[in-house]
Amino acid sequence: MTKEVEMSTKYDPSQVEPGRYKEWIEKGLFKPNEDKEAKPYSIVIPPPNVTGKLHLGHAWDTTLQDMIIRQKRMQGFDTLWLPGMDHAGIATQAKVEARLAEDGISRYDLGREKFVEKVWEWKGEYADIIHQQWAKLGLSLDYDRERFTLDDGLSKAVRKVFVTLYKKGLIYRGEYIINWDPKARTALSDIEVIHKDDKGAFYHVKYPFADDTTFNGKNYIEIATTRPETMMGDVAVAVNPDDERYKDIVGKTLVLPLQGRHIPIIADQYVDPEFGTGMVKITPAHDPNDFEVGNRHNLERINTMNEDATMNEDATMNANAGKYEGLDRFEARKAIVADLEEQGYMLKIEPIVHSVGHSERTGVQVESRLSTQWFVKMKPLAEAALKNQETDDRVDFVPPRFEHTFTQWMENVHDWVISRQLWWGHQIPAWYHKETGEIYVGEEAPEDIENWEQDSDVLDTWFSSALWPFSTMGWPDTESPDFKRYFPTNTLVTGYDIIFFWVSRMIFQSVEFTKRRPFKNVLIHGLIRDEQGRKMSKSLGNGIDPMDVIDKYGADALRWFLSNGSAPGQDVRFSYTKMDAAWNFINKIWNASRFVIMNLDSDVELSLPEASEWQLADKWILSRLNDTVRDVTRLFDSFEFGEAGRALYNFIWNDFCDWYIEMAKENLTGEDEKLKKNTQRILRYVLDQILRLMHPIMPFVTEKIWLSMPHDGASLVVAEYPVEHTEFDNQVAEKDMDNLIELIKAVRNSRSEVNAPMSSAIDILIKTKDDDTRKVFENNVDYINRFCHPKRLEIAADIEAPKLAMTSVITGAEVYLPLADLIDLNEEISRLQKEAKKLESEVTRGEKKLGNEKFVANAPEAVVAKEKEKLANYKQQLAATESRIEELKAEI
């Protein structure tokens, strides 16, 4: 009796996915199996920022991780996929400030403590949203181990790292020019600055001599600047010491326009004599290069701007913006330019387009600002990380080319400014004595806390996320069970856009504090773009919410698209056409599974029949299954998910659905009960293996189907992943079946060419001198009858080709369909000539591939052998096709 099936006639994700994730969580299926004999495999999730909802990039990133961890779990590894989120300092604070601003409230109105409470409320709100999204995507995370970058354990790790680096002299406090975000009012590191082309101008200004000195007959020199608003902070004009043009005026004094202060002309190698006039104004408090020049010449540093980029007039800051006090920097520029023109100092204004730094987070133009900040001395840390790459403990980048990106950045790294003038984050563990000014740095506050005041700054978000792979495992407690068992982690999956921000920092901090790499592999993927290849952004309005895609197509369809989108390191273009194709593929699996289950007896045996009872189609499908298991396992191990997807698609759609199921129908409806039961057992087994192979990619639909069919076990989540069975390998069966399929396709194509319907019986003549090919066809006449519908079938070596017949040349044989009433010899010759051209190109391709020494030397032996066999077949088919063309030409 066949099994009753609770499966709709069409795949509907809304009937498959809801409730499934909750069951998995309640059963604890995502936790490590705690089998001490099993090999551990761990991944830490790149913690999403609690700034908002997850986007398609997050969906891609986490889908790849889930596929890896699900497969490893099924393969018997003791797997841990640790979830968590990032407090995201400046980004989250900006979001909360924007929300408060809608009600006319600023953080200063609330004060630090109340404001931070508001941010925690935001965190709770968006953490809930992210949890819901993770569930909707089907991510098999161990929530019992979830971490947050501001939780107590991670905060302890952050303090430990800060204090240790400080005591080693690798963290220091100093006054330097830093990148300043005037909207967020905080320092930024170099990599938080995005350069964009802005319209600007070169303002050519007269700087008069303070005495009667002249230069080229004039009582002034010409200085070109793009930032006249910083002029009030000028303390010198510099020329190159080797520039002969200016050797007589070095040491002379100029009058600063509009301000009247006297400034010297100095000589410094920094100046490029080939650029512009070869003279530059020096403003040490507003330009990093000028800052270095000022240090070399002991020049004053005059800061002319407030934290919000308005002009200041504050003697305590040695600042002097004069009449421009209180003006925004860009308003001050207009006012200063107007005054320069009115007072005769402006020589000319030359419009330009130039690259200007903008804050990655707030989008405003960044200021170079003199500020006292905390820094990490990067050189020794970078050197240690690079040295570790020369050991067996190295981090392997996939694709390997991204190691160069990492190496290049580490070799040219600058000291890292880690302090941020924010309220949300890890407050710097440094205290200043209220009377003496003494600095105390420690993991805990001073005992006499009433005499100390803690530094109000917080640490750069990346400082805590750099510790993520080991701080989440219990470090600094090196005896923590998770740290001992699961660190270093196995694989990190992330985008190429944060190699500088995050990957590099995790590597050097891990090497410094654990003496180990943080992960064995780092899989780098690209960005999700729209159909036109554009980056998704709010300004373009081309962003796509992954949850909307799931509502329409289901999580499994989105996961299938994301897993097959591109090769490692490449961008992927999202398209609804591809989503339609993903849904269609799942629907194909659904319908094929439904057919199989409907045709299984309720008491079908879960084991395979004896090998001696397998028919050709059985041997072929099991051998092809084995090829697929081998290929997919290898491709997953090398992170070639797109190639793995292609292998699965071809096996499921072509081999299983289009051929094996169709061939099985003959046995399922026949009178032979033994044959029927054997076919059922093989159908069930192959479907079971397909569902296991697909489960890491499509967890919901595979679980639903698997639980609907006769199976052994509670859930696919913890079922055994398919393994290679060498006893299934059968190259003879694969070759024989390929010949049979090729014959059926050839007959079908020929019928189609002349519009001869499959329902009409026709004569089929098969000429073959190859005994093996003849036996295959003779032994499988039932299949030929079913799929080709012959009126007369003749298989022989001495068949004479009929004059008016459609001809197909296949491996080892020629197939003639005598369709005299429907054949035009000239059209047939033309058709065969087109076929010959296709075969010629295949021969050329094969010869070129086998002529490539690299391919022959590096490809697996079996792959090379297969290419040689294909080339021989194409050559044989080409020769037979050309021969047939000549025969037909002779008939005209």
Question: How would you describe this protein?
Answer:
The protein is of the alpha/beta class and 892 residues long. Helices cover 44% and strands 17% of the residues. The chain contains 28 helices and 29 strands. The strands form ten sheets. A four-stranded antiparallel sheet has the order 6-5-14-16. Helix 11 packs across helix 15 (499-514), helix 17 packs across helix 18 and helix 19 packs antiparallel against helix 20 (641-668). The longest helix has 31 residues, at 861-891. The radius of gyration is 36 Å and the shape is elongated. Residues 315-319 have low confidence and may be disordered.
Produce a short descriptive summary:
Helix content is 44%, strand content 17%. The protein has 892 residues and is of the alpha/beta class.
Note the topology:
Blueprint lengths: L12 H4 L3 H7 L13 E5 L11 H19 L3 E5 L1 E2 L3 H13 L5 H4 L1 H26 L9 E2 L3 H16 L3 E11 L4 E3 L4 E16 L11 E6 L10 E4 L13 E3 L6 E6 L11 E4 L5 H10 L31 H14 L3 E14 L7 E10 L1 H11 L7 E3 L3 H10 L4 E2 L1 E2 L9 E4 L5 E3 L10 E3 L3 E2 L1 H5 L2 H4 L9 H6 L2 E7 L3 H16 L4 E7 L2 E2 L16 H8 L1 H9 L8 E2 L2 H23 L17 H22 L3 H28 L4 H22 L4 H10 L22 H23 L8 E6 L3 H9 L1 H8 L1 E7 L9 E5 L2 E5 L7 H26 L2 H6 L2 H31 L1
Parallel strand pairs: 1-2, 3-4, 9-11, 15-23, 22-23, 24-25, 26-27
Antiparallel strand pairs: 5-6, 5-14, 7-8, 7-13, 9-12, 10-11, 14-16, 17-21, 18-19, 18-20, 26-29, 28-29
